[in-house]
Amino acid sequence: MIPATVSQLVADKFQQAQASESVVFKKLDAKNVKDPKSGMRYSVSLVPSLSEKPEFGQTAEGDDPLANSEPELTVLEDLDGSGDLKLVLNKYPVTENHSLLITNKFKNQLDALSPEELTTAYRLVCKMDNEDENKRHLVIYNSGPASGSSQFHKHLQLVEIPRNFSPFQDVLTNGKDHFLPNLKQEPLQDGKVSFAHFVLPLPEDADEVNEDLLAMCYFSLLQRTLTFFQDWLNETPDLVKSYNLLMTKNWICLVPRSAIKAKTLNVGFNALGYAGILLIKDQESFDKVIENPAVVNELLGECGFPNTEGVKPNEYNY
Ligand code: AMP
After folding, report:
1. CA nearest ligand 1 atom 13, residue
2. Of 98, 137, 155, 197, which one is the catalytic site residue?
3. Protein residue with least CA distance to atom 23, ligand 1
4. Is 80 exceeded by the pLDDT of residue 316?
5. Predicted TM-score (pTM) above 0.90
6. pLDDT of residue 308 exceeding 90
7. Chain-wide mean pLDDT for the chain?
8. Which residues line ligand 1 (CB under 6 A)?
């Protein structure tokens, strides 16, 4: 069982880690902006401490910082009594209480999530949302070289959704019943945004969300995402499979990815960017995004694939 006070355990550990400087965290500014063209809203933070985070390929071969997590960062060695996952603070957080669910046995970040891993992450989100009704949580999984991932040891991440901010997937799924996609019914996709993404609403009652249901949601979206890569292989033969998974208590979303960083501005994205949560390391790029939020939809499109809303699926997709 995940402890009922898990949110408090994370918050206490984060405070201690900040006091002992075990986490590297400096947030200088944060603003919510709206792109008048697409109507997309973004939560934009200036976090220069992210410059110290090792990027993809920068961790020395044979070095596995997530396996050897620091005691000052480790919240629970065994998150739910199964021994599968530990809960550890992110050393380079994007926000307070940013934590990681890391497999205790080594697994590869390129591998699909297991139904057990997905379900534990979902249960953790529900527990944390219930513990403090003013907070909502988002789980992400960055998989593949263009996904914005930086560590090869399998891990999911858990962040608090900024207060007064709602990812666009909330609006997209609002009032919609849960369904599994098939040839007749594609996953939900918001036509306003530039990039392809596949979203399924989850049942409103969390007790109805069991391991089988989550596995069916994830694998059907994963199959949709993988066939998407097949469709693009003719045009870009050296394309490597990369995607982001995002999940709240209410919905699950997959985003196929083509690049980590935009060419036109010094901003990179992992799954958080595709919820509209932008983390920017330098003041100049931060100012540019605040001045012209419409640029973000272009950048997200550059690092993903074109939106396919309204395009009929074919027999390969499911
Ligand atoms: P990703 O970038 O999606 O692969 O997530 C890996 C996360 O691990 C990043 O957000 C890093 O900030 C975090 N990280 C890197 N080194 C450590 C470490 N030694 N302890 C805890 N977290 C770390």
Report:
1. 90
2. 155
3. 91
4. no
5. yes
6. yes
7. 95
8. 53-54, 65, 69, 73, 88, 90-92, 100, 142, 149-151, 155, 157, 270
- Give the model's pLDDT for residue 279: 96
Model confidence band, residue 131 (pLDDT cutoffs 50, 70, 90)? very high
- Domain 6-316 annotated CATH 2.30.170.40: no
Q: Burial-class residue 41 by CB neighbours within 10 Å (0-12, 13-18, 19+).
A: middle
- List pLDDT tens digits, range 41-92: 999 999 999 999 988 878 777 789 999 999 999 999 999 999 999 999 999 9
> What is the residue extent of each domain of the chain?
6-316
What is the residue whose two structure tokens read 């990039």? 195
